[in-house]
């Protein structure tokens, strides 16, 4: 484990693009000598005070609940528990289309044997200091123009990659190789092509 390269990824539990990127990184763990550490950011915090489309503002409305519960899990149980909680929560949000609310949080917590009382964190500010610190640690190096996913690797911070569907097997490894290479190129900042279609989510 000590020889593995660490990839730090910041996610908002409701973002489908972050979910796809997280599943890619877990797939990359299977074919490359890497380990992913997951961290929480908040799209609500990111967009506070911004002029955004009404539909997106409405979509953001319940967004603090999931991030607050996720950071509460990390505060109480540590990063490994957060990693597992993201999967349990994300499968319900992105695959099962479960509504955002207490039942969602309790189900994900209970599956992992975590204290279901942490679901109450969704409606309090008790963990907001930790949330804001985690958010800033991830988003600060990439700037406010980025969203999620954000990854830090080899001393570089990136928004992305934005990809769909999830690369599997050696394709996941090849994408990781490309991202790792770009991270080591001094002066590299951006590459982009048009995005076609909606996110295709899977486990």
Structural write-up:
The chain is of the alpha+beta class and 203 residues long. It is 47% helix and 11% strand. Strands 2-1-3-4 form a 4-stranded mixed sheet. It starts with a strand and ends in a 20-residue tail after the last helix. The model has no long low-confidence stretch (mean pLDDT 94).
What are the key terms here?
single chain, 203 residues, alpha+beta, four-stranded mixed β-sheet, 4 strands, 47% helix, 11% strand, globular
Sequence-ordered SSE layout with sheet pairings:
Blueprint: E1 5-11, H1 16-31, E2 34-40, H2 43-46, H3 54-60, H4 64-77, H5 79-95, H6 102-111, H7 128-139, E3 150-153, E4 156-159, H8 169-183
Parallel strand pairs: 1-2
Antiparallel strand pairs: 1-3, 3-4
Give a concise summary.
With 203 residues, the protein is α+β, with helices and mostly antiparallel strands. It has eight helices and four strands, in the order E-H-E-H-H-H-H-H-H-E-E-H. The chain is globular, with a radius of gyration of 16 Å.
User: SSE string, helix = H, strand = E?
Assistant: EHEHHHHHHEEH
Mean pLDDT: 94
Q: Distance N terminus to C terminus?
A: 24 Å
User: Helical percent range?
Assistant: 40-55%
What is the percentage of strand-forming residues?
5-15%
**Count of extended strands:** 4
* Low-pLDDT sequence parts: none
What structural class do the secondary elements suggest?
Answer: alpha+beta
Largest sheet: 4 strands, mixed
- Report the C-alpha radius of gyration, rounded: 16 Å
Shape: globular
């Amino acid at each position: 484990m000590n020889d593995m390269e660490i990839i730090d990824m910041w996610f908002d539990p409701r973002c489908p693009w972050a979910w796809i990127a997280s599943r890619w990184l877990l797939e990359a763990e299977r074919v490359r000598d890497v380990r992913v550490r997951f961290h929480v950011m908040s799209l609500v915090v990111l967009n506070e005070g911004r002029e955004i489309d009404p539909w997106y503002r409405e979509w953001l409305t319940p967004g603090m609940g999931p991030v607050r519960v996720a950071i509460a899990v990390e505060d109480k149980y540590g990063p490994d528990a957060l990693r597992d909680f993201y999967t349990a929560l994300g499968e319900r949000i992105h695959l099962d289309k479960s509504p955002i609310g207490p039942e969602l949080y309790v189900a994900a917590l209970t599956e992992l044997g975590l204290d279901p009382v942490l679901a109450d964190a969704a409606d309090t500010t008790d963990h907001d200091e930790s949330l804001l610190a985690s958010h800033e640690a991830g988003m600060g190096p990439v700037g406010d123009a980025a969203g999620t996913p954000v990854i830090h690797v080899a001393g570089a911070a990136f928004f992305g990659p934005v990809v769909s569907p999830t690369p599997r097997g050696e394709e996941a490894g090849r994408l990781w190789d490309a991202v790792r290479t770009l991270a080591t190129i001094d002066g590299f900042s951006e590459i982009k092509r048009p995005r076609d279609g909606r996110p295709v989510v899977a486990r």
